[in-house]
Write a structure and sequence with these properties.
Layout lengths: L1 E2 L4 H22 L4 E6 L6 E6 L3 E7 L5 E7 L9 H32 L13 H26 L18 E4 L1 H22 L10 E2 L3
Antiparallel strand pairs: 1-7, 2-3, 2-6, 3-4, 4-5
Length: 213
């Protein structure tokens, strides 16, 4: 059963929301939010650390030019976590939750419209709530990226436990790929929210369906 062309924009919004939510969830789990470069205080070797929202991973280069990866987990309750990471954790989780709810609302709205349970017109938009949630999720992701970008520009450090073997201040630090992923998800959420809010069905024209064999 195929929906006629006036549902194409809503389906496009659903596709963008789905992609945005997947990328958002991936960015939450990635450690590459901050990329630190420093000399290991114990082994005295050049080391790269990926500082994420939930873990820090260090990569040491041995004499055979192979990488040695060590990761340490942490959570919201650890006292050494700075405020910007705590805020970012909440923003990312909220964005993921709102994106998931928005996706569910689109599915329910599409089902109700297809079944004729919602009377579509130029005033009522059954996808409006999902559009609003997607735009809010987008703003949360933008704020998360902004907070981390500012901390990198200001060269702020983190006082990790000694067992992590990570200095509180790196020699240099730069933006990681997780921030780019979160920004991409934010753009997709914004686009999908705009599409869902601005797309309307023809006034007083019920949806019709055609069947394909």
């Amino acid at each position: 059963m195929l929906i006629k062309n006036h549902c194409n924009s809503q389906m496009g919004g659903f596709a963008l929301t789905t992609v945005a939510w997947i990328i958002c969830c991936i960015s939450i789990g990635l450690p590459q939010w901050h990329v630190w470069h420093f000399q290991d205080p114990v082994a005295f070797k050049a080391t790269t650390a990926f500082v994420g929202m939930w873990r820090v991973c260090t990569f040491q280069y041995d004499d055979n030019f192979s990488n040695i990866k060590i990761c340490h987990q942490y959570n919201y309750h650890d006292t050494f976590i700075p405020l910007d990471i705590r805020v970012t954790q909440q923003l990312l989780l909220a964005a993921s939750f709102l994106g998931l709810i928005g996706k569910v609302i689109i599915i329910i709205s599409l089902w109700n419209v297809c079944r004729g349970r919602v009377r579509t017109n130029s005033i009522f938009n059954p996808f409006g709530l999902s559009g609003i949630l997607n735009i809010i999720a987008s703003s949360f992701l933008f704020l998360a990226v902004l907070f981390n970008y500012v901390s990198i520009i200001l060269q702020e450090g983190i006082v990790f436990p000694r067992s992590f073997n990570v200095p509180s201040q790196p020699d240099t630090q730069e933006i990681g790929s997780a921030m780019a992923s979160a920004m991409t998800a934010a753009v997709f959420f914004l686009l999908s929210g705009t599409i869902l809010l601005t797309s309307n069905f023809p006034a007083d024209k019920p949806l019709r369906f055609k069947y394909s064999k």
